[in-house]
Design goal:
By secondary structure, the protein is mainly beta. The protein contains two helices and 24 strands.
Length: 286
């Protein structure tokens, strides 16, 4: 009798310890830079399981919050580790009716043995896609986390820190306006002219871009003189009767590699609005 009691106590302690084992949630990547109209992909991951069991995730629910002034929720794709809803192995729900929050739930109908076999130690629960709609910096974070094992026991989950998504105003740029191929030698000699184009339709005034903040793939505007004057000036580059900003980027050897086809310019306006624009390039051998 005493031996049986001890075995039961050991079993209870083992179950309790297993149920209390905390799994860790994460949002990846930890930071992203996008432009308005661009998409940001965020993976919701979980770790802390033992591959092949004995604990496997049977269901989860979570709320994902974001700034609706900067981002719009686009879509969600659940991972495969809880089963295929199309094969009646799982059920999934998503509620994105309220701007700024995505409520998601996923429950598996697979057996404990099937889940033990299917789940590795860490895996992706879902991937969320957002679209940048406003300029600024915002966070994506989790709340209302509910995790349970295949038998329905509650699992403690460590909630991750919020991740940051920086959204810049997407603007049009023209690298080397006088060269339709945008050919760059990338030999560290000379300058690369880049036009930042105004857009009357969006009220974007390129002349309000602060030259001190402008970078083309990390290369900055060339400065001259003791005062460090930036080589930039206002002119109507594209002939639409609206002033643009033409800047001269100091070339730096090794910034580009053979085969690179796009270059991105970043910066800020004088009032702090971040901007981002890309154009095609063609790298020629040195």
């Amino acid at each position: 009798m005493k031996k049986t009691f001890c075995l039961l106590m050991l079993l209870c302690l083992t179950v309790a310890a297993t149920s209390a084992h905390a799994q860790s949630l994460s949002l990846d990547p930890s930071a992203q830079d996008i432009g308005t109209g661009d998409t940001a992909s965020v993976d919701l991951n979980i770790s802390g399981f033992s591959a092949g069991g004995p604990i496997s995730l049977g269901a989860f629910g979570v709320h994902v919050s974001y700034d609706p002034n900067l981002l719009a929720f686009d879509s969600l794709e659940y991972g495969a580790s809880l089963g295929d809803p199309g094969a009646d192995e799982a059920d999934t729900w998503v509620d994105s009716a309220t701007p700024g929050i995505v409520k998601m739930d996923n429950i598996s109908w697979l057996s404990t043995a099937e889940l033990d076999s299917a789940q590795p130690g860490s895996f992706t629960l879902a991937t969320l896609i957002f679209v940048g709609i406003g300029a600024g910096s915002g966070v994506v974070e989790l709340s209302n986390v509910d995790l349970s094992t295949a038998p329905g026991e509650t699992v403690a989950g460590t909630v991750p820190e919020a991740i940051q998504i920086n959204v810049a105003l997407t603007v049009a740029i023209d690298i080397k306006p006088d060269d339709s191929n945008n050919t760059i030698n990338n030999n560290g000699k000379g300058v690369i002219p880049v036009a930042i184009l105004s857009n009357p339709n969006t009220s974007f005034d390129a002349t309000q871009v602060d030259p001190a903040t402008v970078e083309l793939e990390g290369m900055r505007i060339k400065t001259v003189g003791k005062a460090g004057k930036f080589l930039s000036h206002v002119e109507d580059v594209n002939g639409d009767s609206v002033d643009d900003l033409l800047v001269q980027i100091q070339d730096q050897d090794g910034t580009f590699e053979a085969g690179d086809t796009t270059a991105t310019l970043t910066g800020q306006t004088f009032d702090g609005t971040p901007i981002r624009g890309s154009d095609k390039i063609r790298i020629v051998p040195q």
